[in-house]
Structures are given as C-alpha cells and as structure tokens.
Amino acid sequence: MNDVIKYDIAIIGSGPAGLSAAIYAARGGLKTVVFEKGIMGGQITVTQEVENYPGFHKTLSGFELMDEMKKHADKFNTDYREEEVKGIGLQGLCKVIETNKGMYHAKTLIFATGAHPRKLNVPGEDKFYGKGVSYCATCDGVFYRDKAVAVVGGGDSAVEEAIFLTRFVKKVYLIHRRDKLRAVQIIQERAFNNPKIEIIWDSEVQEVNGDDFVTSITIYNKKLEKRSKVPVDGIFIYAGILPNNEIIESRIELDEAGFVKVNEDMHTNVPGIYAAGDIVSKKLRQVITAAADGAIAAWSAEKWITYHEDDDDTTEFATCEIPQKK
Amino acid sequence: MNDVIKYDIAIIGSGPAGLSAAIYAARGGLKTVVFEKGIMGGQITVTQEVENYPGFHKTLSGFELMDEMKKHADKFNTDYREEEVKGIGLQGLCKVIETNKGMYHAKTLIFATGAHPRKLNVPGEDKFYGKGVSYCATCDGVFYRDKAVAVVGGGDSAVEEAIFLTRFVKKVYLIHRRDKLRAVQIIQERAFNNPKIEIIWDSEVQEVNGDDFVTSITIYNKKLEKRSKVPVDGIFIYAGILPNNEIIESRIELDEAGFVKVNEDMHTNVPGIYAAGDIVSKKLRQVITAAADGAIAAWSAEKWITYHEDDDDTTEFATCEIPQKK
After folding, report:
1. Is position B278 annotated as part of the catalytic site?
2. Distance between CA A129 and CA B136 in Å, rounded?
C-alpha cells in the first residue's frame, strides 16, 4: 500500500461546489484532489447563459464560468484527476477512494456529485435544451419576458414557478397529467386566480417542436383522447430533480428523495465526510449556493483534520490505519 | 401616505449579501431597493486583495469585486438609496422603513448589515490594516508563507487559526492576556504540541510597528511588568466579531452574541423579514457565503410574497394595511 497517493481532502465532482471546495482547500494549505468522471464543470456547463452568479455581470456560458473556476482552483495547485470513482471505503478515520484507475487515501472527503432534472424523455426535449427547454425558472425565467411558456408538473415547485413566471411572461400554460394539482391549497388558489395562468388538465407533453428555438409543444389529453399543439416560446419542466448519489457511501444518511443530509458545516453523519452543492438536501440549487457549500465544506474539513490529526503520528492518519479517536 | 414609495423587497446593506440579494430579487421581477448608509460594498471594500471568491482567479481588491457586483445589481434595475435606515416598523405583513431622508414601505425586508471585528484599539492597528494586520486567517493566511506572525486571543477561533496558519508560516506567536487559554482542551493540546507555535502568556499588544508593512509588535507582560518587541510580518487579531445589529427590529430573535437567527430560508422569526451575510448567526463569514445567503433570502422572499399576496387586492399589501393572513 506504499504507493497509494494520500490527500488531505478528496473532492468528488468538479461543478461549482467541487471547484469552490478545491479553491478553499488548496488555498488553505490542504493537499487536494478533485475527481471528475465526465466533463469538468458539472451540470452548469451545458447552460448557454448564466447571468446570476454575483459579480459576473457580463452574461457568460456555464462552460465559461466553470473554466474561470477551474483556473482558480489550478492557481492553488489542486490535483485534478479525470477518473471515475467506483467506491468509497472507510478505515477508521481515513477514507479509501477506488477509481477506474487506482486507489487513493484521504483524511476527508467531499461529495459534490450534483443532481440532474428528471426528463420527460420526449422528442425535442434534448435538442431544444437551452433553446426554449428549461428546468429552472429562477435561472431562465427572465429570458421569456412577454412571451408564452408552458410549465409541466403539478407539485409545489411547478405551481410556484408557474406563478413566478407570470412576473415576466404574458401567458403560462400549466400542463398537468391529472385532473387536480398536488401543490398545497393556498398556492393552487394563487394559480387559479392568476389571469395569466391557464391550466391544461389530464394532458401529457408528447413532443417539443421548433426551428432554432421552441415554437410549440404537442400535448395529448388522455381523457378526451385528443392531440393538440400549444404555441409557446419556452417549456419549463418540473418532473423532479434527481440526486447523483450512486457512489454515496451507504452509511451516509439521505433524505426521502435521496439527497445527502448535512449540518451547518456541510458535514454528513459520517465523521470527515462532507457534501456540497446540488447533492445536498436543500431547497435552492444555484451556482452561488453550490459554491458557498463548497467553501464551507472545505473550511470545515480543515478544522476537522486539525481536531483529529494526531500530532505525534500524523502518518498513521495518512496511511489509513489510525484508530477512531475517543 | 400616498407618496410613500412601495417596494416588494427592501435590502439594508450593500455588501456581498445585500447586492447578491438585489441581483436575485430584481432579476426575479421584484421591485427592489438597497439602502446603504456608508460606502457601497460593505466591510470587504477595505480589503486590498481578494483571491478566494470562486471564479475571480485574478486577485482583485474588495472594492473592485464589489464594484462588479454593484454593476450586476444595476443591470436589473435595483433602486440604490444612499440613506441611513433609522428604524423599522411593522403594519400587519408590511414593513415600514424610516431613513434619514424619508419613509418607505416593503412587503419583505432583508437585513444585510454585516459585522465588524472587535479591534485592539492600539496604535498602528488601523494604519497597517491590510499591510500586516488582519482579522481573518482564512482570507489572508496564505499571504504569509514562510513568515512569522502573531495571533492575538485565547478562544477557539484564535487557537484554531493559529494552528491553521502553521500550514503556511514558519512561526506563530500566540499572544494571550491570561495564563491559560479558553479554547477547548483538544485544540489547546494541538497548539501546545505544534513546534511552530510559541505561546506568550499574560501579555497584551500595545502597538503595531512597521514601515510600509508590519515589522514587529510591542507587547507588555502584565505579570513581569515588562515591555518587549516581537518581530513579526503580520498580526491576526481574534478579539471577537461584532454584529452590526443596531437597527435590527426588536422582535427579531438574536443569538447570544447578537447575530440574527435564521432558518434554512434565511427567514428570521418575523414573517417576511430575512437576514443574510455576516449579520447571520453562523460560523464561516466569507464573500461567497454572504452572496449565497443573499440569493437564498431573495428567492425565499419572492416565494413568501407569492404565498401571502392577496390576488384579489394586492394594493392592500402595498399600502401596509393588509391584515395578517390566517
């Protein structure tokens, strides 16, 4: 085991949470690694326009923003490994990380694996992503001023965001597959009373249509057994958000939807293991909140190491053979 | 009262928390105002080098960073008022804001008034701020690589940060006015066992000395009644952090130190009143965490308005005469 590379902190995922954690950890003097199995930057990199990361007032693409963060992490000598983490093990206080390329040891670990929206899986959904298809009204609503949009879903998020969108758009079609909404009563009433919102019941989206940009959606009314086209400039899909939790260590406590529970230090229930960003059980998932999570997690991890590192024999920690402290 | 200006959201303070809240609120279609009694940008503007706000990898001054955030808020038509808030009143759900120049109504309110470090109030402290005097090792520690620094204090923060600094510096003098530390036992032991840390007991800092930059501090040992000079390149002062809570509405719950308690939505115990940034009861106070707080508070405020705004008669809300909803 002598050739195992040992880190103070291992970060899984290179989105805003992971890279922010890396900036804080590496700048804080910790030996830091980021593992990324796919594309550097995470989910946000597929976003064409980011205009709400405070300080970047010139609209840039998600990829461009993450490229700036990556340069920032590189500045402080973060190790960046394009490897897929296959599993996590614990040996006392030490974390063992197995990837498709090797084995690593770390004193602390941050899961920054993110989340992704549940798709409708209909034709046109992927093609028009960022060109009329969105999963986040907070992010993209403002781009649809005085336009017509569809919102798909019937839960709190869908109905809240339909109402939110009426701050900008001229018309919202709220498309729900059942004949009643699941959202709480008061928010349903707000939607019913909002003159800009028209609810289309018992209907599913079958296709997203357009040229360069979305121009309409094809819906199917199950009760009437009727297909029709609704002219819209955009479609906001609220079919749920799914945590990327496949490699989350089994001892880590999750909420009902599979997101990681953390305390105010971003600490999970497992000592020395943190989570940050969209994978965390929380309400608002934005670049800025993910980046803050990452900073807090890295800062907390440094403090945790200070409290748990045995000054007499730090090598024990690093070789994953340190016994649990009393 | 007809000429009172009415806002959806009033933000008090224009630091990272306040401006981020403004970006999210104004971009989210809310009529937004920021009140600032002093210099735009808050506490961070006096910082010469910020290099840990993720994405800004080219080191910039606190003022420059906040100037970018101000431009960002301006882009979405935030009202910016250089007025001192004198008091806050509540009329049902509506907030009444009295400044040195007038009276305003708002549906929601965000306190982003910040905090400030307790100073030693010794000669040289202000003169060398940013030139060797710091109140934040997380922010500035990395600038003292292989140098000698003093840390002043004896609580958890002082001792933790003294240990943190040993990741960079060659020597830390921990200067404490008593003959024992207040920090928890385990962290005291870590400090005692750290070869880079020398504790100077029973001593107070009397002066910070230097030319362009700090070169030494003058300390006074109360037991020995002896004055001496300690050669250091920097001094980190941990005498406590104080909340700027003078105008916080009296019904708002504070922690023991006077910081505002909030839930995960940054909501205080008073409906529709939020807090964000350094004024919040929390551990890590950084630009990135303040900005995230602001985004969450603004997002939460928008949802709160949606839930509480009466669609039949929104004017009642705006004129501060709406009764509390059941």
Report:
1. no
2. 43
